[in-house]
Amino acid sequence: MPREKPDASDKLAPVSKGSDHEYSMDVSTPSAKRKSPITPTKPSVPPNKVIVSNKNDAELSTLTAAIEKLTARFDEFEGRLRDNSVILANLTKITEVNAAEIKDCKTKLRDLEKEVPALVKENADLKERVLEIERYKRRWNLKMQGLKEKHEENTRKEVLDILAKIAPQHAQS
C-alpha cells in the first residue's frame, strides 16, 4: 500500500514517554515492547488445507484412469508410427530398386529399338528369298486336275500319255 504524503499539520512531535504513537516509543531500553507491529500482519485466515473427500477421490481416480488410457493410446500410436516408419523405409528401398530396374529396362529398350530396323530389313530380305525359291521350285511342278493320285505311280508316263492324246503330232513313239 503506498504511503500518503504527510500534511503540514502532521509534524513530528517531540518524543514523550507516554505517547501512543509508534514513532514516539522509547526504544532505548531493550525491554520496551511495541504496541503494534512494524510490518503489516497477514490476515488471520488459515492456509488452504487440502481436504481429500470421497468426491475428490473419485475425481482423482477418474483422472488417473483417463491419463492411463491416454498413455496407452499414445504408446499404441507410437508403436504404429514405428511400424509405419519401417514399412516406409522398406517401400523406399523397393522404390529405389524398381527405379534402377526401370532405368535398365529403358536402356535395353533403346538398344533394341536401334536393332529393330535392321531386323525388319533382314526379315523382308529373307521373305523375298523364300518366295523366290518357292517360285523356282514350282516352275517344274505341274498339277493335273481330274487325275487321281495313285500310290507308286509313274507320273512321267501318265503326263506323256495325256499329252499324246492332246497333241499326237508331238508325242514321241
UniProtKB/TrEMBL annotation:
Keyword field: Coiled coil
Highest taxon, organism lineage: Eukaryota
Ranges of biased composition (kind: Basic and acidic residues): 1-10
Region Disordered: start-end pairs: 1-50
Coiled coil: 60-129
Protein name: Uncharacterized protein
Taxonomic source organism: Mugilogobius chulae
